[in-house]
Structure to design on (153 residues):
């Protein structure tokens, strides 16, 4: 199953995320995107699926895709903002297609508050991942990002 980029930005290894839960891959494997500088960005669905969980404030969500759940987490410590600077465009139970707008992110306002907006995209059910774009390279929404593979036996 192919996941496409949900955001425009620079592709980073999870080890570069300044949160050990993500950097040490405790929740699963994936990649992170450091969003572009812009006043406002929209995050899009990386695959077809159902919004299984929308965290309060819209800082994170789980999409139940063909090969299991995928976590999208927008920024680090954004949970503490209680939704400030983020606006969810979907609700739990919504069926989405790859490319569906999910969340509006007020990038400039959040960065102005010192928020690191690096955003992990993670398979959280033991799925294996194969990177389809170069780390350190720029990616735009809809470009192939990861191939999600079933967990190892």
């Amino acid at each position: 199953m192919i996941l496409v980029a949900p955001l425009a930005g620079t592709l980073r290894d999870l080890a570069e995320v300044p949160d050990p839960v993500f950097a040490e891959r405790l929740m699963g494997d994936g990649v992170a995107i450091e969003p572009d500088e812009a006043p406002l960005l929209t995050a899009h669905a990386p695959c077809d699926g159902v919004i299984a969980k929308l965290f309060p404030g819209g800082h994170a969500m789980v999409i139940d895709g063909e090969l299991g759940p995928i976590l999208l987490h927008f920024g680090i410590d954004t949970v503490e903002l209680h939704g400030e600077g983020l606006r969810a465009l979907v609700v739990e139970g919504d069926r989405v297609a790859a490319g569906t707008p999910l969340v509006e992110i007020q990038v400039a306002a959040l960065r102005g508050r010192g928020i690191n907006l690096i955003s992990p995209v993670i398979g959280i059910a033991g799925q294996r991942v194969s990177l389809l774009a170069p780390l350190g390279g720029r990616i735009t929404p809809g470009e192939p990002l990861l191939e999600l593979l079933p967990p190892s036996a």
The two ends are 18 Å apart (CA to CA). Residues 9 and 35 are 4 Å apart (CA to CA). DSSP finds two helices and 14 strands in the chain. The first helix runs from residue 20 to 23.
